[in-house]
Specification:
578 residues, alpha/beta, 5-stranded mixed β-sheet, 46% helix
Length: 578
């Protein structure tokens, strides 16, 4: 039986977002559990013997080193054996050991090499010399040579769904320092831009150059975290390409250690982008400070979905005929309990206001048309604001996309990245399935330089995963009780409602509710019903007696379904006896 496990994020205890949901090859029973199977693997892979020799040092890390954690998951049957992942994990494990006693420099070794500022050009002109021809020429020259003085980081790249984020999250959780940060690269660049904007507004005179402001931002960030773990490292905008080279120059000089995941090698970052020569000096710098490792895996674990195929449970609904349009309307009405805000709500993002055409009154659920989100000049900050404001987002009428709609494709890719990273539940209607939604000819694939074609594979993989029981279960379990139960009319729960509730409360996916899981559910129901969660032992025993029909001490789905289908029984069992 496929196991469901917590998706790794800073607030999660374990990191299993990309573990396979398929029958697992057996692990030899003779493998000593305490050794995490190292002796068995070492015989097959020579590089493993060096790892075994180091293991006694790594075992001092609370919870285990990255490789120890990874191999424990494998030996427990929670992930599939994957030699390519293990090779990458060995590099992450080695890096974890090298940073164990590392303290970066608190000051820069040399002043930043400042580019002469030409006449005008604003902030970016200050960074790259305004309109001066001489300065423009120097802009493409490498920054001042900065050589690594601390541990060299790791740039992990490969195809979509091959476990890059999963492995980096294990590393981040195990890294023995409090000065660490795990962040999607889109979010980090937004943070950089916000800090620069704040400093620009705050400076009293024009004496502080653009380079000075970048150095201040980098200094702030180093004070917060010197170990930076970036998910989905990519460059899509000229403004980011210009700024990041300077920021990273300062971070690296001060001893920052970077671990990054990406779908492409460093040489292909910002490929064919506007004014790319301004960015290219960053590539050798990145390779100096990060070992580049191609994971090389050819299995997209996220395409292995545990969707049970029931039509009423679909969240990616296609084709988009009148029947499907009526279905998504019913789903929205149900999740809003029929209480929908009759006028537009608004979400604020960096001073801009994003209109929300429809939203639930008593729950954080929103409805958009595709045109609302992708036909307008919106970016990552806007989509992240939407993802933070709503736990469930409906997107209606996604059309077939081609290179003629390149702007919409790019925005849709960024939108899905934001919603996925926040683990938002997404319900959509689309003209086609995810794989064929973006129609690109083979000739275009071979000759086009458009980044959207390259990035679309990641979007397909994520859209597929977002339909899986695994993803939806984790999204449900992250919700506050009020947000979760606010979606339902408890007096008239549908079959789909009850299935959603089962996914939340069967937290270990055992197929039964143990007493602890049942108590959690009853306390949350009591909070919704009576405004408090103080469930007395007497009320708990009465509820158990009402639910556990066969008196075996566990609650089956059938017993769960019968109990929740009778609201009077719920009210009666949760009421303290006089």
């Amino acid at each position: 039986r496929a196991r469901l496990v917590a998706r790794a994020r800073p607030e999660a205890a374990a990191s299993l977002s990309h573990s396979a949901q398929r029958p697992l090859p057996s692990v030899p029973s003779s493998t000593p559990a305490g050794a995490w199977g190292l002796s068995t693997v070492a015989r097959a892979q020579p590089w493993r013997s060096q790892l075994v020799a180091r293991r006694r040092f790594a075992s001092g890390i609370p919870g285990g080193s990255p490789m120890e954690r990874y191999l424990k998951l494998k030996n427990d049957g929670l992930i599939n054996p994957d030699p390519r992942q293990e090779s990458a994990m060995a590099k992450l494990d080695d890096l974890c050991l090298r940073i164990a006693n590392y303290t970066p420099s608190t000051s820069r070794a040399t002043p930043a090499a400042k580019l002469a500022s030409g006449g005008g050009g604003g902030f970016f002109g200050g960074l790259f010399g305004g309109g001066s021809k001489e300065v423009k020429k120097s802009a493409a020259a490498p920054p001042s040579a900065v050589k690594p003085t601390g541990p060299r980081g790791l740039y992990l790249w490969g195809g979509t769904g091959t476990g890059k984020t999963f492995m980096m999250d294990i590393f981040h959780d195990a890294a023995p320092t409090d000065k660490k940060r795990r962040v999607h690269f889109h979010e980090w660049m937004i943070d950089v831009n916000n800090r620069l904007h704040r400093l620009q507004k705050a400076r009293a005179s024009a004496t502080a150059s653009a380079d000075d402001l970048v150095a201040q931002v980098a200094s702030e960030m180093m004070g917060e975290a010197w170990l930076l773990c970036f998910d989905e490292f990519q460059v899509t905008h000229i403004s980011d390409a210009i700024i990041m080279k300077r920021v990273f120059a300062v971070l690296f000089e001060r001893g920052a250690v970077v671990v990054a995941t990406s779908n492409r090698p460093p040489e292909d970052l910002y490929k064919n982008g506007l004014n790319r020569p301004l960015f290219t000096p960053f590539i050798p710098m990145l390779k100096d400070f990060c070992e580049v490792h191609d994971i090389g895996a050819d299995v997209d674990y996220r395409l292995i979905s545990s969707n049970n195929g029931e039509e009423d449970m679909r969240v990616y609904i296609h084709p988009n005929t009148e029947k499907e349009k009526a279905l998504i309307e019913r789903k929205f009405s149900r999740i809003c309990s029929g209480q929908v805000l009759m006028h537009e709500a608004q979400v604020e993002a960096q001073g801009r206001r994003i209109s929300v055409p429809r939203s639930a009154i008593n729950s954080r659920v929103a409805w958009f048309d595709f045109k609302d989100l992708c036909d307008k000049p919106m970016g990552a900050a806007d989509y992240l604001a939407v993802a933070a404001a709503f736990h469930t987002v409906f997107i209606a009428n996604i059309p077939k996309l081609t290179m003629q709609e390149r702007d919409q494709v790019r925005r849709f890719i960024t939108l899905i990245d934001a919603l996925y990273d926040h683990q938002t539940k997404v319900v959509v209607t689309a003209d086609r399935d995810a794989i064929t939604l973006f129609e690109v000819s083979e000739e275009d694939r071979k000759t086009s330089v458009a980044d959207e074609i390259f990035a679309w594979d990641r979007t397909v993989s994520r859209l597929t995963e977002m339909q899986s029981t695994k993803y939806l279960s984790e999204a449900i379990r992250r919700l506050d009780p009020s947000d979760f139960l606010g979606q339902f009319t408890l007096k008239a729960l549908t079959d789909e409602d009850i299935k959603q509730m089962w996914l939340r409360y069967d937290a270990d996916d055992s197929g039964e509710l143990e007493m602890g899981e049942l108590r959690t559910m009853l306390e949350e129901l009591l909070e919704r019903q009576q405004g408090h969660s103080n469930l007395s032992d007497e009320a708990f025993d009465a509820s158990v007696s009402a639910i556990d029909i066969n008196k075996d001490g566990k609650i089956s789905y059938e017993e769960f379904e019968q109990y929740l289908g009778n609201y009077t029984l719920i009210e009666t069992s949760l009421t303290d006896p006089d």
